[in-house]
Amino acid sequence: xxVTVLLADDHPIVRQGLRxxxxxxxxxxVVGEASDxxxxxxxxxxxxxxxxxxxxxxxxxxxxxVTRQVHQRSPSTHIIxxxxxxxxxxxxxxLKNGAAGYVLKDSGPGEVVQAVNQVMLGRRYxxxxxxxxxxxxxxxxxxxxPKDSYDDLTNREREVFQLTVEGxxxxxxxxxxxxxxRTVEVHRSNLMExxxxxxxxDLLRYAIRRGLVSxxx
Length: 217
Hints:
globular, 6-stranded parallel sheet, Rossmann fold, 51% helix, 217 residues, 2 domains, 6 strands, 10 helices, Arc Repressor Mutant, subunit A
């Protein structure tokens, strides 16, 4: 049986390159592509691939949140995060959310293939420039940290959060998520209360500070 792979990146040329790279391997089969995080989460639930390769920063739902949701819904799917960030905090959050691999975008092309092979063996894969020992130390330390209010947000509240900071109106978010505008407002009100925020600008600052969206979002 081939290793089934789902690709999620908002740049078509990146997905095309990854597909070509992976499909040159005799045992890999790309079963789908997603151009945003919401689509990635939906396709992962539909296809239940062996491996999901997901970009860290995507519209609709960022890669960290896609990782968390897919890990919840399809724990047998091994998730590899692609990222331009070599900051240990990002790596740590990806691993906490359920990622099995973290590959830097400036790595050689063969590293993605190596990552897929390693996670399919049940192993963790980090790009060579990342410190495995430091990541292990940070993972242990996080168990001693106080609870983060962001962790209290529901999946839907997180989706409304990201679409809001991307600048979508309540009506546009409702259409995107197939819910009513009134429901969007309820979710937005609830998430702002949980986070102790009071305006859309507060939401944007919070999202940037946490690295949930890029600075130019």
